[in-house]
């Protein structure tokens, strides 16, 4: 192998080596703990999501729509919308979907199936959500794309942030361990970003497919980010210049 060449490895070769990935989510009090407990690797949550969501929807007793749905909202398919949610006019929700208590779904939001939103999450104006998890208080408030991704508790992405989920060549998206150039076979042709609890992502940033951000990391605006980053990283936009 040439110097600097990236080595491909199977995920099986890393079993039992959880310390090679950053701390992401504290799930002790999460309503979705059951989704995460059987995931061998962080990205396995995306593989388990469909079955978990279906099971959760089937377990609901009583009405599945528990918040006011105003005129001008389109809903179709199987979904649960819990109490205290604000659903604004112009929202389009295609199930399966789970919208937890006190969520805010803003005008122009497009929920495109396979979405699991925890209590108090914000799904924003002119934003699209597809096959993703937003843990409690996660916020994607303006002009965002969140596909095949997980946003941790109280994570926030600024206006225009894109969680890109598909390679231009259509190949399986690799993941990476901390401090390694090895490309791990995720088995996922669509894999956006895994964002830890309390992360802040600045406006108009793009997270490339397979990006993993440890908890409480900060990404400056207008950044282009790839790879796996440890907890409490601060990722600067190298193109930004300040006056002397």
- Helical stretch tally: 2
Unreliable segments of 5+ consecutive residues: 1-5
- The CATH architecture is 3 Solenoid
Judging from the principal axes of the Cα atoms, what is the shape?
Answer: globular
Q: What would you call the quaternary organization? A: single chain
Reading the helices and strands in chain order gives EHHEEEEEEEEEEEEEEEEEEEEEEEEEE
Beta percentage is 25-35%
CATH homologous superfamily heading = Hexapeptide repeat proteins
Mean pLDDT: 92
Number of strands: 27
Calculate Rg over CA atoms. 18 Å
CATH fold naming: UDP N-Acetylglucosamine Acyltransferase, domain 1
Question: For the largest beta sheet, what order do the strands appear in spatially?
Answer: 2-5-8-11-14-17-22-25
Helix content: under 10%
The total tally of domains equals: 1
Backbone structural class = mainly beta
What is the CATH domain class?
Mainly Beta
End-to-end gap: 44 Å
Biggest sheet character = 8 strands, parallel
Describe this structure in words.
Strand 18 (173-175) and strand 19 (183-188) form a beta hairpin. The chain has one domain (31-234): UDP N-Acetylglucosamine Acyltransferase, domain 1 (3 Solenoid), CATH 2.160.10. It starts with 7 loop residues before the first strand and ends in a 9-residue tail after the last strand. The protein has helices spanning 33-36, 44-58, and strands spanning 8-10, 74-76, 79-81, 86-87, 92-94, 97-99, 104-105, 110-112, 115-117, 122-125, 128-130, 132-134, 139-142, 145-147, 150-151, 156-157, 162-163, 173-175, 183-188, 193-195, 200-201, 206-207, 211-213, 218-219, 224-225, 228-229, 234-235. The protein is mainly beta and 244 residues long. The radius of gyration is 18 Å and the shape is globular. The longest helix is centred in the first third of the chain and has 15 residues, at 44-58. It has an 8-stranded parallel beta sheet, with no helix packed on it. An 8-stranded parallel beta sheet has the order 3-6-9-12-15-20-23-26, covered by helices on one side. Strands 4-7-10-13 form a 4-stranded parallel beta sheet, with no helix packed on it. Pfam families: Hexapep (PF00132). In the N-terminal section; belongs to the N-acetylglucosamine-1-phosphate uridyltransferase family. In the C-terminal section; belongs to the transferase hexapeptide repeat family. Keywords: Acyltransferase, Transferase. InterPro entries: GlmU-like (IPR050065), Hexapep (IPR001451), Trimer_LpxA-like_sf (IPR011004). This is Putative UDP-N-acetylglucosamine diphosphorylase.
């Amino acid at each position: 192998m040439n110097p600097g060449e990236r080595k491909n490895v199977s995920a099986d070769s890393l079993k039992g080596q959880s310390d090679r990935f950053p701390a992401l989510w504290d799930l002790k009090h999460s309503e979705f703990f059951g989704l995460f407990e059987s995931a061998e690797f962080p990205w396995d949550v995306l593989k388990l999501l469909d079955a978990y969501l279906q099971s959760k929807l089937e377990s609901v007793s009583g009405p599945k729509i528990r918040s006011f749905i105003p005129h001008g909202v389109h809903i179709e398919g199987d979904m649960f919308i819990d109490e205290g949610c604000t659903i604004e006019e112009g929202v389009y929700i295609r199930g399966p979907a789970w919208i937890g208590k006190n969520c805010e779904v803003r005008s122009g939001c497009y929920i495109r199936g396979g979405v699991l939103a925890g209590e108090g999450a914000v799904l924003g104006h002119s934003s699209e959500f597809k096959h993703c998890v937003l843990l409690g208080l996660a916020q994607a408030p303006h002009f965002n794309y969140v596909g095949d991704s997980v946003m941790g508790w109280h994570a926030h992405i600024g206006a225009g942030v894109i969680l890109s989920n598909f390679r231009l060549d259509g190949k399986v998206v690799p993941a990476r361990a901390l401090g390694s150039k090895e490309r791990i076979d995720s088995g996922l042709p669509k894999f956006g970003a895994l964002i830890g609890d309390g992360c802040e992502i600045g406006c108009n940033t793009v997270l490339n497919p397979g990006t993993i951000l440890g908890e409480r990391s900060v990404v400056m605006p207008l950044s282009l980010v790839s790879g796996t980053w440890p907890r409490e990283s601060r990722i600067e936009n190298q193109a930004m210049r300040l006056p002397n």
